[in-house]
Amino acid sequence: MFSSIKGRSVIVTGSGRGIGRGIARRFAAEGCRLLIVSRTLSEAQRVADEITAAGGTARAFAADVQRAADMAAMAQAAVTAFGGIDILCANAGIFPAAKLGSMTESDFDAVIGTNLKGTFLAVSACLPAMKARKAGRIILTSSITGPVTGYPGWAHYGASKAGQLGFMRTAAIELAPYNITVNSVLPGNIATEGLAGLGAEYVRSMETSVPLGRLGSVTDIANAALFFATDEAAYITGQSLVIDGGQVLPESLAALDEMRSVS
Ligand code: NAP
Question: Whose CA is nearest to atom 46 of ligand 1?
Answer without folding.
Answer: 39
